[in-house]
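$ fold --in a.seq
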Amino acid sequence: MGNQSTKQGIQGSVHGAYKFRVMKQEELATNIKLNNYIKEIKYSYSEHVPFFDENGEHINQYKIINKVFINELTRLDLDVGNFTSWASEDQQFQINSQAIMWKDNKVPVSLCSEHCLPGSRRRPRSTKYTCCYDCVLCSEREISNITDSMNCMKCPDDQWPNNKKDRCVKKSVEFMSYQDDFLATIFSSVTFLCCTITGLTLGLFIYHWDTPIVKANNRNLSYVLLVSIMLSFLCVFLFLGRPIDITCKLRVTSFGVIFSVAVSSLLAKSIMVFIAFKATRPGSSWRKWMGVKLPNSVMCVCSLVQVIICVTWLSISPPFQDEDIHSFQGKIIIQCNEGSVFGFYSVLGYMGLLAAVSFITVFLARTLPDSFNEAKYITFSMLVFCSVWIAMIPAYLSTKGKYMVAVEIFAIIASSAGLLGCIFFPKYYVILFRPDNNRKQILLGVKQKH
């Protein structure tokens, strides 16, 4: 009786069934008894016959109405589609989007954020709504190529994002190129000019080999010095063009050895200047050191030390071609890696040591008579050398890429030109423009007047 009365009570309220809220399946599961009764509910008075299925879900066909308010008193209802619950999934929802009338003819957006274009990604806001987010640009080395991307993709090491950050493009390759680099053209032209001047000076000294100004202070050392300066200029071409392993190995080592020969020649000249005037005193013990053996020995021994340093460097950790992909955006820098930084600075440090010893030697010879004395010229040349290379070190450490190579080239050209100008141009001037002074008696007279 209890079950029957309950059933009759529910059937008695059939006319108000439309007021019931259809519960979800998981909610109905909490009240199995009520669900069993709902399955049996039927409408008998409506032209439509909605009913509940076996899961207690309301089955019917619904119209989709577009309500358009023309003014405050007038409303227009447009039938723009329908929803049929018993149809297949692809046929349940049908709508004619062309028939819908939107306010101000603008389709409302169901998101609280704009779409994130390619090149950016979504960043969720601190809200519970997933449709609310911010659009942030991809980082430097990342791209996104779809709309509303959740994550950005990183480009390969040899590629870089384009300006829109929606695709990766190949990085440009940079080095001191003969074809495309204006600096390389300038350095090549200056080097060629300096080599030509050095070669003409060497030819002029050989042509006037028997004159007093050429014979002064060992002309053989002057020839060696001029050849070394010319080769130092030619070393510049090892720094130009695309670096490869062999040019990286020869760059600093070849210049280090050649320039050490040049500075060793100056050191030998400085020593001979000092000994020559010490040996002029009667009974001086310095006379036994006169001759060509001492300067040749000084030059060979000092140069041999640099050769040993370079060979050790090349044997343990030689320079090699390297690619710098991180220093510049969108560029791959082709450069030479020194291998052993200690070896690199050992070569430069030894050249500086030779220059310092030469400077000290000529400083001691500064008070000697001026006849055939190159002390002041060697002093100026060593000052130029030291100034250039001391300034080169911080400039070298603070630059990258091809500008680092440009600093090295400038230091080589400036120091070599300093040696050539300070030591040989005064003699060059006498040979070409004052040949009447290129005699022993005249030179002695001129020096005595000073």
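$ fold --in b.seq
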Amino acid sequence: MCKPTLTYWSVFFSFGLCIAFLGPTLLDLRCQTQSSLSQITWVFFSQQFCLLLGSCLGGVFKRTLAQSLFALFASSLAISLVFAIIPLCHNVVVLAVVMAVAGLAMGCIDTISNMQLVKIYQKDSAIFLQALHFFVGFGALLSPLIADPFLSDTNCILSNSTANASSSTANASSNLPHIRKSLVPHHPGNLSHYDLPMKGMVVTRVSYAFWIMALINVSGWDLGVARDLGWEDPCSSGLGGAGACWEYQEYSRESGVLETSFGDEGHDDLLSCCQSRNFRGASYTYFAVHITGALVLFMTDGIVGEYSGFVYSYAVEEPLAVLHKVAGYLPSLFWGFITLGRLISIPVSYRMKPATMVFINVVGVLITFLLLLIFSSSVVFLFVGTASLGLFLSSTFPSMLAYTEDILQYQGCATTVLVTGAGIGEMVLQLLVGSIIHDRGSYSFLVCGMIFGCLAFTFYALLVFFHRMYPKPSPELDDASPDKAAVPDDTGQYQR
């Protein structure tokens, strides 16, 4: 299963590239579309909403490895085309539609990659999931670095009446780095007090950044995987676990194409998961595990979104009053330590159970927010706490996914439900915290983080409780499980 696994990892790099470029480039895209700040920030919502929709529907592509690989190829190719097309979008509505397409592709990548790695490796999936989420962090770290040399240092719309420009416009134009760091997805009201020109000659070089990212994305995997959409026999590759070998089902004599059928039980898209056939005979603990697992990720992924979105705004306000240039390093520090934490988690997950890793993560998040509240007047500890928070949040999603799927014995709809819950949390909590900060002040930023951390720990404790109550597999079922995998006999036939 080497080729499919490498494919899932590489498409998550595409996911990371696409998820992180919008914030730094948004001011230049505002100039390109000649729109207001409030109008252009709704492009965030277009991308995030369709990412959530794509996550819900991604389970449709579940029947075979070939089908899932083709879906991922199409999604990553769509992202490459989006990067190439963005410089040609001179209307904000057209740009929003293009970003919606990118969001759908990203959602499909998110659900399919997580789902298929869990299906292939099952009890051994934790280490492969950690590696998968390292690649999205690496892409998110690289994307702003590619864009940075091409960003405008001054306002990129030269007004025809520069001599009559208002003082507020001049002040805003001279303070673009501050505005750039203040851009918050889903909360455009935060920018209503800035007045930048919307008419005039557009001077921006950001198009080169998008074309470079399109070339990186294509050369990185699209061309290679398009040539090798086939897959290896999981029993002979040595990388797949017993579950991967057990999934080996069909051989087409006519075409000579190997297929892996994943069956119909569980791992559907969100709409299929809600069908009554999945409820027959299910105990209340079955539903409780799905719900509490999704709520843990709703909180932790929500913390990632709201912290990365608002830590800069919190730092530049009183009582810290950090210089804008210095505060601008905080989001980069946060994402850098998320990427570092995911890299460290790859070998750690080989030795440590997913349940233990999730416990360490949620407790670490709680303690970090508590210390940030205690030392709220310390600039040094804000940087230390930001790095610590990135480390503890880094491996929460893959560890939680592996733990929940293990509880449910790789049945049900855990992957789809958890991915959807995480996406909703990232979108909703960011909007909620933006509204609270606007009404209550910057200190509420840390208070909200502490509350979300407490809720994440509470839901995790409930998940452990329901895990203890969840029925164990019967010996009869265990004999038919992937652990009793099919192995080839002397004639090359697969028998159980």
